[in-house]
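User: For documentation purposes, I need each entry recorded in a consistent format: the amino acid sequence on its own, followed directly by the corresponding structure tokens. There are two entries in this batch. Please keep commentary to a minimum and don't merge the entries.

Assistant: Recorded as requested. Entry 1:
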Amino acid sequence: MKNVYTFLVVTFLFSSLSYSQNYSWQLKQSGSSLGDPICVNNWNDNIIYYGSGNRIYRSTDRGETFAPFGNIIPGASAVKCVLQSSYDENTFLVAIENSQQTMKTTDGGQTWTPTGSFSWYYYGVPIQGDPVHPDTLYAMNSNEFKASYDFGSTWNTISNGLQFGSPCDIDVFPDQPNIIIVGDNGYGIARSTDYGQTWAHVYVTGGETPILAIDKNNPGHAWATKWSGGGGFLKTIDYGLTWQAVNYFNGLNMWGLSISPQLSEYLICGEYFGNSYITHDGGTTWTVLNNPSSNYAYRVVDTTTVFAAFGSGLYKLYSPWFIPVELVSFTGKVINDKVVLNWRTATETNNKGFSIERSPDNIAFTQVGYVPGFGTSTESHSYSFSLTLSNSDKQYFRLKQINFDGTSEYSNVIEVNTPVPGEYLLSQNYPNPFNPTTNISFALPVEAKVKVSIYNSLGQKISDLTNQQYSAGRHDLNFNADNLSSGMYFYVFEAQGNDGSTFAITKKMILLK
């Protein structure tokens, strides 16, 4: 195997700090932590898992209370990490200490099966999933790099004879999953660009690199903590090729680290013994709070739901600031000729509701709907709103959150692309029967000249509703029969595509006055 060594000239990132009495850690499940034993349910982020000793504990109320989950894990003295399958809510893989092996369950922890024996670093987080290929997992066995393609049931050696053999953490860039980084004890940071087959030594340190965290919303950006060997905190903006030191943290023995999955600017890191550090602006300023005991891992669910695995158990972060209306997610997609918008809040205060606004050009917005809020609530709430597709190829949406006192705030704008249909389509007019207006919709797979003509029951043409060129996509026409008498009418659709295709169809409609 070929090893490439790259030595780094370090520049420094400067920060300012403040000390806060507004944050506090509250113990939610006593235990003993090791590695990164926190897991958030893939389907419902109100469900939190915490591994301690020889079992897993589960919370169904966003970490407020915990209870044992499943049965005891055989041979375990500590749970170093907990991974849940993206395909089956009852399938988990854990890495355990004492016997140093992986254990898998497919029945929600009722039974556990050993799937691999390893030699790994005691304090490390030995397994990491591939965010693009959910059944692919990576692990280190001494100086071997291994992969599993069936969620831990079997393991394959990808490379061996590596010059690093005490891995602390592994991480994979979601937009370039071929790039994998490993933090090691006494070696520094290694980087692979070919799924772990070959490795380069990109950062050198005599101490540990306990935790790596990739910013999933900012391509190429990641952070790393350093313990001993000068300590410190590192950042990369080029997919781990080079690393810069964050100046303030030099000399501090850092350990845990987590980045908000929704907001790149929010992250938390901490010393092994000492303090936690929170930033809301990507590291320009930091707020400091004291840790209750030795720190192993953090997990940011959102900016108001943060957990930490300390030596004495699992803690949750509290603050009086965690009450405003916080929009956690806002998405839109096309389902069955409708745009479906979904959004979720973490907490709400004085929230009257949401006005839904749409724009064809991301400039001029008009209100298309309204959904009431939940007033003041410390619970997470999910919302949904659907509306008929417009004839625009692209649509832009935003939420206007309205308080009871009349103040309001806008969300970020999201773009929803209308899919181009695979064939010519003519919808039944709506409403039908009608009086005196109705809507006729059609869809084109390619740009085409379209003619729509109206006929009475005797076959006499009443009018041409349209006769012009249209782009590929959905289009709507309005027919006004104010000057016609009640009866049955027909609309004839004819299209001549720019690619030479043709299409013709006739549908009937009923006018009732």
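Entry 2:
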Amino acid sequence: MVERSVQLRLRELESPWDNDCQEMLRSTQQRFAALRQPKQFPGILPSDALLASWPEPDMLRQVVSRLNQWVDTQEAPPTWKPDPMLATLPADLLRLPMVDNLGQVHFTAYDGYMLMEAVWLRDAARAKSAAGDSVDELSVARNLFDWTLRNIQTDYDSPDRVPQLPWETLFLGHGTNWERAWTYILLLRQRGIDAAVLALPEESAAPSGKESLKPWCVAVLIGEKEKKLYLFDPKLGLPVAGPRGIKADKSGHLDIEPATLDEVTANPKLLEAMSLGADAPYWAQKVNLKQVVTLLEASPIYLEPRTKRIEARLTGQQRMVLNAEPTEQAVHFKAAGLRDVRLWDLPYTTLKRRMALPPKDVFERLAAFVPFMSRPGAPLYKGRILHLKGKIFNEKEAIAYYQRARPRYSTVEDEAPKYQKDVYDALYAQVAAGGRQVKPEEENVLKQVSIQQAVQLAKLTVAGKLAASYWLGLIQYDAKEYDAALDYLGIRTLQFGAEHVFWATGAYYNIARTWEASGQRKKAIEAYETNLLLRNDNGNLVRARWLRELDGGQTKKPAEMKTEAKKPEEKKKEDNKLEEKRTDTKKPEETKTKAQQLEDTKIGEKKIEDKKPEEKKTEAKKP
């Protein structure tokens, strides 16, 4: 019975519950107050900055508790030894709590989040909108790579940026190039496909004389009798093009079969397809590919014997991968021709940095989750999880919840005073617990904190509305409703101007992809070549060159194209060509589809008026 209840509890990780979202919002409000006034609200924040930066669903606590009850009913596991490759990590990473506790039998709060991550990765990797219909492993790998590029907006990396774990990258929908690659590798793992990062020696040695490696691409190990390594460059956002050349499907959308490592090693000239010409070669062309180093993903959760025991007991639709054997993986990669195979340290350096976050960064990470919980019923939170699961079109699936996450702006303003009062009452009750008398100066502090949180919530609710619009655009792309996708991405997401919208980079990239997929190749080429907000390094210029060559056109010289995109604050504001070319697309009322539930839109205004509730459709049918 206990084992059965464990399976039922793990199933709870698959769906968000109303009371859980409400509890998360309340606990997050308390953490905000404690971060602002630590002396006033002691004992609220977890001592671990990593756990303090994540909202804590009550469901996770229950899952961990039930798992530990199950552990107590089992026989003691056999003596466990860590994977030998773990010892190759630097000593400071081996001292991380989640590494030091690998062998313990009981589950931790950190394990709860990692189990949730595995569930979300499994569901996303199974969704047809992400992986496609084919069971062919190479097709799955290509589809998941393309889905990752379109659905995870590229973040700039910098020393002061807070690094993310894969579940954050997947759920929040943005991450750096190598956070996207990390997520992609784990998506493939849930489909039973091995993948690793390939790195090459830097052109110049590190000042200390130590070896310096530069990540190059993700190598996906595919094949039945003879395994081959297919190459995908997450920085350019493109497969490394193989000898079969650059092709397009019937609609004109690029269809690139990736090269294998053997192919580019035997014929390095293949890499010329990834360059912008003789003046701007692909950096890997300058390196001896025989010096490639393989970096295996082996996060702590996949090395724990306790999660391996859970994996062995999951059946049917609940099956998921919770274990990785890096030493065994290394054998497979070496059999494919790789000699130097190591552990990738990114998962471990990320954990180390997150555990040392200062309070301001903890606050920032918590704030990123508030838009998902701020509306009654947490529609953005539910919509996002259902979107990742590929549950899109029915009445209680992603589209319906995303639409509910897009309130009128006047509604947001009207709700602020009530929210401020609710926060004040909750904090007051906490301070006054046990009959303690609240001092006047404490009341003033509570008022200030509650006002700050009300203002912040209003801003984050608007941010949530824009996120919902952006993700609805991605859904319309997947449904091949390209006019609707352009409307959501170009008008509703960017309604305040690109410089004020977090999703501008992803919106512009997906607008270009939409034009490409819909056969409007000239518009796509222009967007890839001229939009300074696109962040896939030179990958967009390479993509434009490939499209231009398919048209038989001349390739522009690199000097005639835009150089690598700079951060928005470092460059002049770009004219919004989308608005100028609005006449090239249909009006919103002409682009409505059965899959949309679009509201009437007033072009040129900065707010969108919803229809009356009784006029709204509650179900979006699949096109």
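Summary note for entry 2:
Residues 440-478 form the longest helix (39 residues).
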